[in-house]
Amino acid sequence: MSDPIPGVRITRDADLRGLNTFGVDARAPWLVEVDDASRLADVFAVAPLAGTTPLVLGGGSNVLFVDAPEAPVLRLTGTQIRVLDDDGDTVRLSVDAGVEWHAFVLRTLDDGLSGIENLALIPGTVGAAPIQNIGAYGVEVRELIDAMHVFEPATGRSARMTNADCAFAYRDSVFKHDPARYVVTGVEFRLRRGGAPNLGYAGIADELAARGIDAPTARDVADAVIAIRRRKLPDPAVIGNAGSFFKNPIVSADIADALLSANPRLPVFPAGDGLRKLSAAWLIDSAGLRGYRDGDAGVSPGHALVLVNHGAATGADLLRVARHVATTVEERFGVALEPEPRVIGARWAQ
Ligand code: EPU
Q1: How much distance in Å is there from the Cα of 162 to the middle of ligand 1?
Q2: How far is CA 121 from CA 101, 117, 261, 278, in A?
Q3: Which of 232, 305, 329, 332 to mutate to test the pocket of ligand 1 (most atoms within 8 A of CB)?
């Protein structure tokens, strides 16, 4: 098929193996890649996207293909970063959805900016980061987002949504609840020059102390985060995975207290409003499942929250392991685990 619109690439029967970090086999009926988001109204007006609800993929680092998607897959591939304003203290940037997240973090550090250094080395794209409100080492991306640029296929319009419009919460946003409604085309960030680093997460302070750094810069914090992640989390370029497969469960204070008295070592964190967040990794680990393996699908031996593809696992194999983990934890602790990635081609709830 010839390219009907400049800057748009269309592939029929596209191989998605290289477009999901689990590295499982899946094919899409169509793959549509768009450099310039201002063309989206034109792209949605014609085949193969017209009248469909495409599956939007970023870096494919938060998706499990159990079956092939029925809808076309859409990727935004624009990679521009623009400075909106800079008063010498605060800098506002507008960043295209297709920019690779970690490359963006490094670029902000090169420019002397701070704010997202704790989120170094997270796989995926800038456009995908707000969907599940990525978070690590005491920082969530929502804290740095001013606004989102979106395209609404149903109306053919582009819009700017404020941070409040996005209903960000732990690993959650309006985009996760209503994935068909918006295509994220860009994100506006508000970063600082030389702001105070966030060292609240114990692991970071320990890592910096071990490195003999007592007045860390944003780059020092990023280096510490990169070192911790490399030690703990499997690299998707080496072994297929999608980071944490389960969300840390949020339960009532009463349930958390009962679990704590039976399991005094269970990590429990405040989650607002009489709620507590439990460590899913600890629950899975304590159920004896770290390193569990069923064929080529398994639980990472290094971190119990991460499912891994040891080579030739299918999406169905990984889903079977995920269900085994959730059932075992539920039987042992009475706590339900929910997947963090999008599961395509199967329902999680059976
Ligand atoms: N733990 C175990 N066994 C393990 C791993 C961890 O018992 O195999 C226990 C430890 O006690 C540890 C606690 O679990 O103190 C928490 O572990 P960790 O610090 O690794 O954090 P997490 O809650 O498991 C979350 C995010 C990660 C993020 C880290 C660091 C979620 C679902 N996951 O993991 O995000 O990097 O905190 O902030 O909130 C991701 O979303 O893909 C991701 C990797």
Answers
A1: 29
A2: 8, 9, 36, 24
A3: 305
Is 0.90 surpassed by the pTM of this model?
yes
Topology of the domain covering 81-193: 3.30.465
Q: Which CATH class is domain 240-344?
A: alpha beta
Looking at the annotation, which residues are catalytic? 171, 244, 340
Place of tokens 């507590």: 276
- Give residues with Cβ within 8 angstroms of 340, minimum separation 6: 62, 132, 171, 242, 243, 244, 245, 246, 247
- Atom 12 of ligand 1, nearest CA residue: 282
Q: Is 170 in the pocket of ligand 1 (CB under 6 A)?
A: no
Q: Rounded to the nearest whole angstrom, what is the distance from the C-alpha of residue 279 to the centroid of ligand 1? A: 7
What phi, psi does 279 have (nearest 5°)? -80, 110
Q: Decide: 285 in ligand 1 pocket, CB within 6 A.
A: yes
Query: Is the distance from CB of 260 to CB of 40 less than 8 angstroms?
Result: no
Quick: pLDDT tens for 278-302. Answer: 999 999 999 999 999 999 999 999 9
* Ligand 1 atom, smallest distance to 132 CA: 41
CATH match for 8-76 among 3.30.43.10, 3.40.50.150, 1.10.1660.10, 3.20.20.370: 3.30.43.10
Task: List, for residues 188-209, the tens digit of each pLDDT value.
Answer: 999 999 888 999 898 999 999 9
